[in-house]
Design a protein that fits this description.
With about 80 residues, this protein is α+β, with helices and mostly antiparallel strands. The chain has one domain: N-terminal domain of TfIIb, CATH 2.20.25.190. The chain contains 1 helix and 4 strands. Bound molecules: zinc ion (ZN). Keywords: Metal-binding, Nucleus, Transcription, Transcription regulation, Zinc, Zinc-finger.
């Protein structure tokens, strides 16, 4: 806290389209090594950490993207952690 982040808005910069992130920070090892992908045929989302080997799968719908798989994983992980 207290850190002032530089404005990320640069008016006039030629940034047309943001590429959606598919690599995220791991909840277990805190490394940015979690990659997500969604199988278009089955709509199953896959997530795995390249550092600690955590894995997760979930059913997705057509409007979900990689970050949604990551969100599902966070929810599932929190459920496990608070499940008593
Ligand atoms: Zn990890």
């Amino acid at each position: 806290m207290g850190k002032r982040s530089k404005s990320t808005r640069t008016p006039g910069a030629g940034r047309k389209k943001e590429v959606l992130d598919t690599v995220f920070t791991c909840l277990f090892c805190s490394q940015k090594a979690v990659s997500c992908k969604i199988d278009d045929a089955t709509r199953i989302g896959y997530l795995s950490c390249g550092r600690c080997g955590q894995k997760f799968q979930c059913q997705t719908n057509p409007i979900m993207a990689a970050i949604d798989v990551y969100s599902e994983w966070i929810d599932a992980t929190e459920e496990v952690n608070t499940a008593d």
